[in-house]
Amino acid sequence: MFNTLNNIYSLVYQNSEKALPAIEELGQLLRYSTKDLEKDFITLDKEIGYLNSLIELEKLRIKNPELLNVEKKLSHPKLNISPMLLVPFVENVFKHGDFRNKGFEMKISDENKILHFYLLNYKKEKMKDSVSGIGIENVRKRLEILYPKKYKLNMIETETNFTVDLKIDLNNEEN
């Protein structure tokens, strides 16, 4: 959050046309974190809206934001999902990802009310800490509690990249 505020401060100082959209995205993040996180479930489009705002703000500090490939195909945006379930994966991308000449690929779909979240990012060289930290472990525990036998999570880590492939059956989760 502090890095984001510093980035926005810099944009305002430079009279950048990106300043107002950045403030709007920050407002979306704050609204989500103060209002929507109080609920047990939110709509899928709100969770994805948070991801979009997070990505837009992170683009401010990346030299090649065009390398961030996001593909969404939603037929059921009002399906319910537990808030902040997908966010740790995206936060890890920006914490551990290599954005010098590489980006990431994120795909989200909900065909047949099955959420499919796919994320591929390239890792920084000589990382000090592991990609799979407490945030990811908390997601695993929450999935087991909230969606027992209704999800499949595959994470593959190689020397150069990290892939998340998550499917959650959201049938009977519509608002």
What is the element layout, followed by pairings?
Blueprint: H1 2-13, H2 19-35, E1 42-43, H3 44-58, E2 68-73, E3 80-81, H4 87-96, E4 104-109, E5 114-122, H5 134-146, E6 151-157, E7 161-169
Parallel strand pairs: 2-4
Antiparallel strand pairs: 1-3, 4-5, 5-7, 6-7
Helix pairs in contact: 1-2, 2-3, 3-4
Short note summarizing the structure:
The chain is α+β, with helices and mostly antiparallel strands and 175 residues long. It has helices spanning 2-13, 19-35, 44-58, 87-96, 134-146; strands at residues 42-43, 68-73, 80-81, 104-109, 114-122, 151-157, 161-169. It has 5 helices and 7 strands; from the N terminus they run ααβαββαββαββ.
What tags apply to this protein structure?
175 residues, two-stranded antiparallel ribbon, 7 strands, alpha+beta, single chain, 5-stranded mixed sheet
What do these coordinates show?
The chain has 175 residues and is α+β, with helices and mostly antiparallel strands. It has helices at 2-13, 19-35, 44-58, 87-96, 134-146, and strands at 42-43, 68-73, 80-81, 104-109, 114-122, 151-157, 161-169. Strands 2-4-5-7-6 form a five-stranded mixed sheet, with helices on one face. Strands 1-3 form a two-stranded antiparallel sheet. The model has no long low-confidence stretch (mean pLDDT 85).
Total of helices? 5
Roughly how many Å apart are the termini? 31 Å
How many strands in all?
7
| Multimer state | single chain
Poorly predicted runs of 5 or more residues: none
> What proportion strand?
15-25%
User: Helices and strands, in N-to-C order?
Assistant: HHEHEEHEEHEE
Structure class: alpha+beta
Mean of all residue-level pLDDT scores:
85
